[in-house]
Amino acid sequence: MSPASKKRLGILISGRGSNMQAFIQACAKQQLNADIAVVISNNPNAAGLELAEAAGIATQTVDHRLFASREEFDAALVACLQEHRVDLVILAGFMRILTPTFISPYAGRLLNIHPSLLPKYPGLNTHQRALDAGDSEAGVTVHFVTPELDGGPPILQARVPIEPDDTAETLASRVISQEHSIYPLAASWFVDEQLTLKDGRAWLNGKALGPTGIDYASHTQ
Ligand code: GRF
Fold first, then answer.
1. CB 16 less than 6 A from any atom of ligand 1
2. Which domains does the chain show, CATH number per domain?
3. Does ligand 1 lie within 6 Å of residue 179's CB atom?
4. Best probe residue, ligand 1, of 50, 150, 176, 181 (max atoms within 8 Å of C-beta)
């Protein structure tokens, strides 16, 4: 693919940005044939902004506290993404609930990563909830974003075991290393035009995926 036809990614963060960093590395290693056009944060103090700048990537802060409503904030995000001609939006630890003002123009071009085996544990504190429930495994899901919070069609999941002495922190660190593998991989399927959202389902290479998407372990076997 010529550089002119490379897909342009917009990555939205609120904090540390380790998933964003995984995208920077995947692009550098050409595991992901895309350019990161812009990294946007709602939080001016997000550590990930400095990482992006150090990598020579354009950054923008759109501070949600400066907007009177979620819709106005979302419209400002859309304007920023359009200005940078973004084809695919990557939510990477972006801690704001998005409205249809944002989701509609990017429907089918908007991915999120959620640290649970969806449909289990949408929302916050996923690792503690998995521990409290006595689950034997946890994991992470990449999914298309729809207006239902963490409810869009799953694309790819990775599972990790829960060990008897796990805390939310030890479990999170086991999960995050999987996040860094599966998120750029799922994005590469989109960039390579293998992945689409159609009729409310994720499709990979013309096949509708099931309610939990592809299992990473079986995919890599
Ligand atoms: C990750 O656990 C991700 O699954 C969740 O937010 C966290 C972001 O971490 N949505 P980072 O900023 O990418 O390091």
1. yes
2. 1-106 (3.40.50.170), 112-221 (3.40.50.170)
3. yes
4. 176
User: What percentage of residues in the chain have a pLDDT greater than 90?
Assistant: 96
139: alpha, beta or left? (left if phi > 0; alpha if psi -120 to 50): left
Closest atom of ligand 1 to CA, residue 115: 4
How does residue 112 score in pLDDT terms, banded at 50, 70 and 90? Answer: very high
What would the two tokens of residue 44 be?
């001016």
pLDDT tens-digit series, residues 165-176 = 999 999 999 999
Instruction: Tell me, letter by letter, the H, E, C secondary structure of the chain.
Output: CCHHHCEEEEEEECCCCHHHHHHHHHHHCCCCCEEEEEEEECCCCCHHHHHHHHCCCCEEECCHHHCCCHHHHHHHHHHHHHHCCCCEEEECCCCCCCCHHHHCCCCCCEEEEECCCCCCCCCCCHHHHHHHCCCCEEEEEEEECCCCCCCCCEEEEEEEECCCCCCHHHHHHHHHHHHHHHHHHHHHHHHCCCEEEECCEEEECCEECCCCCEEHHHHHC
Q: Is it the case that residue 2 has pLDDT exceeding 90?
A: no
pTM exceeding 0.90: yes
